[in-house]
Amino acid sequence: MQLKDLALSSPDIPDGERIDDRFAGQVGSETPRMTVTGVPEEAVELALVCHDPDAPLPHGFTHWTLYGLPPFDGEVVEEIGRPGLNDDESFGYVGPFPPFGHGTHHYYFWVYALSRKVVGEPTREEFLRDYADAVIEQARIVATYSR
């Protein structure tokens, strides 16, 4: 795997800043817009994952998995992708909802350029285990949220 030109950005969730309440779980979990650039030519698919490693669970909490995204630069269109199972056993984006008083949580939004297609709707852990060897490049943004 190489770290080259692949980049992830969001007009809704700036890297390093606090996530706006409208994208949080207690307000309605509006799905943030994400944009991918620098997709390598050899990529056959993109995958997107949002994970909170600060959640008080053994493996943190996965808020979003999205597979089957076309390997092109541009805005991520959730309806084109195939959502995987999140840690609350739902499909699709689940906004931040850390416990009151638990401090600041960090939300890692990862994009992966893959050399092969993802089959089915794996959890984050299954995806990382089964497709680590297929990652050509990866990029992330990190934002925070607390209640």
Secondary structure: number of strands? 8
Overall pLDDT score: 94
Total helical segments: 1
Order of helices and strands: EEEEEEEHE
Low-confidence stretches: none
Structural class: mainly beta
How is the CATH topology of the domain at 1-6 and 39-59 and 80-112 and 119-147 named?
Answer: Phosphatidylethanolamine-binding Protein
Rounded to an integer, what's the Rg over CA atoms?
A: 14 Å
Q: Would you mind describing this structure in some detail?
A:
It comes from Demequina zhanjiangensis. This is YbhB/YbcL family Raf kinase inhibitor-like protein. GO terms for molecular function: protein kinase inhibitor activity. There is one protein chain. By secondary structure, the chain is mainly beta. The protein has a domain at 1-6 and 39-59 and 80-112 and 119-147: Phosphatidylethanolamine-binding Protein (Alpha-Beta Complex). The protein has one helix and eight strands. It has one helix at residues 124-131; strands spanning 7-9, 35-37, 45-52, 61-69, 74-75, 82-83, 105-114, 135-145. The longest helix has 8 residues, at 124-131. It starts with 6 loop residues before the first strand and ends with a strand. 37% of the residues are buried. The mean pLDDT is 94.
